[in-house]
Amino acid sequence: AQRVTQPEKLLSVFKGAPVELKCNYSYSGSPELFWYVQYSRQRLQLLLRHISRESIKGFTADLNKGETSFHLKKPFAQEEDSAMYYCALVNAGGTSYGKLTFGQGTILTVHP
Amino acid sequence: GAGVSQSPRYKVAKRGQDVALRCDPISGHVSLFWYQQALGQGPEFLTYFQNEAQLDKSGLPSDRFFAERPEGSVSTLKIQRTQQEDSAVYLCASSLYGFDTEAFFGQGTRLTVV
């Protein structure tokens, strides 16, 4: 069975400090990994995905298949980064329709 | 260019009451998903539609849960004889098609069963 684990429910940092949100997964097939973000009173939205290899809002995430991890990193956190972050995976096989498996989420608070 | 729209935003139901939650996906999106998010948890998959066909209902927790998308656009999630454990946020998401297309989420419906 596929599973996504985010070990930290809460993470607090000060503005300008580096931040890393951890995500580990277990999946026997070929997964595609995502980070979703939910800002206060807004809907869940895609932040970035492994396959695009982009940096969004200064965030990056590297897929480490050996460690089955997809940690989200930002070198200098900003107050507007405060939000709930979810790591998620989807089966990247040919017949996949994109059913997402989410982790439990990490609440990031960036203090001024 | 409206996004995914869900209604109502909030619903309070007495235990045993039936409820219906509506989702208007983005026009032209083939795929439609329902997720359930309990307090303090991540969203969990309930069911998937490809156009009007319900191809996966493996996440529906009991036969009290029923979903439909009769014309391949608007979808309704119905919960019969609601129980307290049904209290959660119900999220709808739509995408063009396939795992490599972005899923867009609605604001969710917060259901509270009292």
Q: How would you sum up this structure, described in words?
A:
The complex is a heterodimer of chains A (112) and B (114). Chain A has 112 residues and is an all-beta fold. Chain A has strands at 3-5, 10-14, 19-21, 24-26, 31-38, 45-49, 60-61, 72-74, 83-91, 100-102, 106-111. In chain A, the strands form three sheets. In chain A, strands 2, 5, 6, 9, 10 and 11 form a six-stranded mixed beta sheet that branches. In chain A, 38% of the residues are buried. Chain B is 0% helix and 48% strand. In chain B, strands 2, 4, 5, 6, 9, 10 and 11 form a seven-stranded mixed beta sheet that branches. In chain B, strands 1-3-8-7 form a four-stranded antiparallel beta sheet, with no helix packed on it. In chain B, a hairpin with a 2-residue loop joins strand 5 and strand 6 (53-56). The model of chain B has no long low-confidence stretch (mean pLDDT 95). The interface between A and B is medium-sized, with 25 and 30 residues.
User: Count the strands of chain B?
Assistant: 11
Order of helices and strands of chain B: EEEEEEEEEEE
What's the overall geometry of chain B? Answer: globular
Strand content of chain B is over 45%
Output mean pLDDT of chain B: 95
